[in-house]
Design brief:
Order of helices and strands: HHHHHHH
Radius of gyration: 14 Å
Largest sheet: none
Shape: globular
Structural class: mainly alpha
Distance between the termini: 13 Å
Number of strands: 0
Strand content: under 5%
Helix content: 55-70%
């Protein structure tokens, strides 16, 4: 049994890997879709069960994907959450996050 919600992990990684999606969702003025950096991180690691599964080494995603997700987790912790969403999206830390999220997505979004 896979302890994580893989589809939600993939959705979260897509959001964290795509600048245009971030601009659309994180700068939304209340349109039908709204998100934020904090919500994307929360969905990826808490709502999906990924954080606990990563800690236990029981994601069911394989060693390469787990290593990529751990690197992403480290990069996310370095992001300055105090800046506004516009500056956050354009920050060098988010550029690194997008690259790592994209790499992780490649490893996670494969047919089972």
């Amino acid at each position: 049994m896979n302890p994580i919600k893989r589809t939600s992990v993939i959705e979260s990684l897509r959001e964290l890997s795509d600048r245009s999606t971030q601009r659309r969702l994180w700068l939304s003025s209340g349109a039908s879709e709204v998100s934020s950096f904090a919500e994307a991180v929360e969905q990826l690691f808490t709502d999906t069960g990924l954080g606990d599964a990563l800690d236990k080494g029981q994601t069911g995603l394989g060693a390469l994907a787990e290593a990529a997700l751990s690197k992403l987790d480290s990069a996310l912790r370095k992001v300055d959450r105090s800046m506004g969403p516009d500056r956050l999206i354009d920050s060098p830390q988010m550029a690194a996050v997008r690259a790592l999220a994209s790499a992780a997505l490649t490893l996670v979004d494969v047919p089972e």
